[in-house]
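Internal QA ticket QA-208
Title: Verify multi-chain structure generation after dependency bump
Assignee: T.L.

Test input:
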Amino acid sequence: MILADSFRVAWIDLCFIRRNLSSVLITSLVGPLLYLVAFGYGLGKGMTVDGFDYMSFMIPGIIALTTLTACFSTTAVKVMVQRTYFQSFDELFLCSMNPAAIVLGKAYGGMVRSLISCAILYVVGLLITPDLRFTLSAVLMILLASLTYSLIGVVAGMLSNSHLTMNMITALIITPMTFLCGTLFSVDALPGFAQAILYALPLTHTTDCIRSAMLGTGFEWIGFAVTMVYFIGTFVICYYLMVKGKR
Amino acid sequence: MTGDIIVRARGITKRFGDFTAVDHVDVDVRRGEIFGFLGPNGAGKTTTIRMITTLTQPTEGTVEIDGRDITKDVSSPAKEDIGIIQQHISLDKDVSVLENIRYHAILHRIPRKEAEERIERLSRMMGLEPYMDRLVLNLSGGWKRRVAIVCAIIHEPRILFLDEPTAGLDTQSRHMLWDLIRGLNANGTTIFLTTHYMDEAEELCDRVAIIDHGHLVIQGTPEELCMGIGSWAVEYRDSDGVKQYRYFTDMEQSRAFQESLPLGSRVVSRNTNMEDVFLEVTGRDVVATEEVTFRI
Ligand SMILES: Nc1ncnc2c1ncn2[C@@H]1O[C@H](COP(=O)(O)OP(=O)(O)OP(=O)(O)O)[C@@H](O)[C@H]1O
Ligand SMILES: [Mg+2]
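Actual output:
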C-alpha cells in the first residue's frame, strides 16, 4: 500500500528523468569519470593501497561517492524547487497520501539516477581492472546507500528555501564528504582524531562496505549497519518534516 | 440547495511571528452553495483557504470538512473530497501538461481507464488539446491556469476551492470559467472562491464573507449585505470636488438628500452594489494606515 503509493508520488520525478535522461546521466558521470582518469591513470599509476593496485582501490570509492553526489543533488534540488518555486509540493498534501509514501517517493528520482550511473561505472570498473568482482552484496549496499543519500537530499530540500542555502549545504557538508570519506585514499593513512571524525560520517562506512564487497574481501557488516542507522534516522526526520514542517 | 454545513471553520487563527494574518475567523459553507470570500490585498484570504485545505497549519482553531476534522490526520480520506486551485499556480513546470494532469489522476488513485477518459473530456472542455505535450513552462499564464483547473477537478471533488481564479484572465476565459463554476455547482459541487472582482461575486456567489486585516467583518447574501448599508446609493462631489457616497434604506430619503445638495452638483443615484459594500466595510483608502486619498 505505502510502497504502491510511493511510486505514485515518484511518478512525475521519473517523468522528468525520462525526458532528460541523457543530460541527467552526463552530469552525474562526467565527474566520476574525470576522477578515474586523473587519479587512476594519472596520479595513482603503479601505486598500491591496502594490497590492491590504486585503480582497483579507487573505483569502488568512486561508485560510493557517486551514490552520494547523484542522489543528494537530485532530490535536494527537486524538493526545494517544487516547494518554493513550482509550489507543486502542496499537491502531495491534497490527496490522502501517507507521509511515509511521500518520503519514499521523493527519494526514487535520486535513486534511479544513482543506480544507472553506478551500473555504468561498475561495468567500466569490471572491464578495466581484473581485481573487481560483481557481487550481490555490493549491489545491496549501493541500493541502501542510494536510498539513504536520497533521503538526506530530501531533508536538505525541505529545510532550504533557495539555491543559495542549497549551495551552502553542498559546499559545507557534501563536498568535504566526497573527498575525505576514504573514497580516493585510505582513511587509515590519517591521524587518529581525523579517523574518528570520518568514521562518524556515513560515506566512510558506505565506501568501506562497497569496496570490500567489490574486491571480494568479505562484507563489512559494520558499514552496512551504520548506513542502515543513517537511513532510519533520516527517514524519521523526513517523516517528521512532512507532518510538522512548515511546508 | 440544502442548508447543512459542509465546511465548518471555528476560530481559525494564523500568526507569522508577531503578525496575526488571520484572527479567529469562523466560516460556514453550506452544501451546494457558491461561497465568495472577499477582502483587500493582504487581508488573509489565501492564508484562510490554505488553512481550510490543510496546506497551512492553523495556529489555533479547527476545520471540519463534512463533519470530519482534517487538520489532525495528514492522510485523512476526507482530503479526497476537496480540490484547490491556488493563487500561485502549483504545477511542475518542467514536464508536460499531460504529465501534470496524469500525475494528479495517479495521486488520487483513479483507475487508468477512467483517468484517461476524464483527461480527454476535461482537456477538450478547457481547449487544452493542442497543448498537451508542451512543457508547462512554455504556456502563458491563462493557459497554465486552465491546466491547474483540470488538475484540481480530475478527482471530482465535492468542494472546490478557487483562490482568485480569474485574476489575469482575458474576458473569454473569465466567462468560460464562470460557466465552468456554475456547471460544477449545478452538478452538486460546493464552491469556495476568493476574488477581487465585485461583479464576479455578485454574478456567482450565493453568499459572501468579507475579511479585512485578518478579521471577518461581515457575511451574508449579496442582497442582504447591500440592504445592510442601504439599497439606494447616491454619488456626488463635495465642495472640494472629492467624490462622496451616501446610502439610504429608503428611496424618499435618498431623493430628499439629492434635493438638499447644491444646484448643479453632479449627482448619480443608483442601486447599491457589492462594490459599495466592500468599500464601506473595508474603507476606501488603498492603504488604510497611510494618509492616502484618491481624488477622482
Ligand atoms: N509565510 C508567511 N510569512 C509571513 N507572513 C505571511 C506569510 N504568508 C502570508 N503572510 C502575510 O499574511 C497576510 C495575509 O496574506 P494572504 O496571502 O493571506 O493575503 P490575501 O488576502 O490572499 O492577499 P491577496 O489578495 O494579495 O492575495 C499578509 O500580510 C502577508 O504578508
Ligand atoms: Mg491571496
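Spot checks passed. The first helix of chain A runs from residue 2 to 19.
Status: verified.
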